[in-house]
Amino acid sequence: MTTTRRQALAAAIALPLVFRTDLAQAAYPDKPINIVVPFPPGGRTDLVARLVAAYMGKHVGNTVVILNKPGAGGLIGTKQVAGSPADGYTLGIFSTAVVTAQYTLATPVDMGEFVPVRVVNIDPMALAVNADSPWKTLKELVAYGRKEPGKLRVGMIPGASAEIFAAAFASAAKLEVLSVPFKGDSDGALALAGGFIDVHVAVPASYKALVDGNKVRILGIAAESRSPTYQGVGTFRENDVDLVIGSFHILFAPRRTPADVLLFLDEAAGKTMREPELVKQMEVSNLGYANMGHKESEVFLARQDAIYRKVIEDAGMRVAPKKS
Asked: pTM for the whole thing?
């Protein structure tokens, strides 16, 4: 057989293989995609997931279903995603807790079990005081706290991101504060409005109604730049407190998800997050908008991991053993 005939035969054999591969790729997804939410319905993580799912189906060409798998502080849901086949049919939308749990739980899920598809929400930490308090700026509050160590009563939720926010603020501002625990953000915010505590830390949305009613005042936001919603509020760095920290939600896939499936999901999620109606609904729901692709999400996640790990370890909040 001549070289030319052998080449032609090889090409003829290869063509059906390429065609079958393309068909297999084109078929995905040929059934609904599940997004696991590791918390009950009604919370912020559930709200973010449902907004994403409502528009993502259009861009993946199939139904996207939300599965609420609450329990053990989010551990049950995250473990379900980690243990699912890496075929693109089981994803998860996880909050900041997936990062902090690595250090605050004795048996956490290893973050190496997941790959970030896209960051879809970022809400910076906000610090608020009672509207009648004497502090008009964060600088004034910090100056008072340094003059009166241990006097500032800071409200937060033990075991949640808010406790880490409070520890991060105290460390960055070089303050000794008195932490006051609450069951939820709304409880603490109402206590702040009633004058029972001096300071409260949460995401900005937790204060919207009270800010609108002139009950509390936000003194600073721990973001890289000013919030579009609160343009009149300076960042922590503008007030000489070097801190950028907040909560976020990321769409994850199991580790070892094929590169072509991951790329497909990344592109579909990007188109989803550019849907005008979704953007509008996030604004109405007081959810900070984000739309970071896979590679950018990896960088963001690594940076957040380093920030939270340091704060948790400096505050003596680490429970999980350090890896050897």
From this structure: 0.81
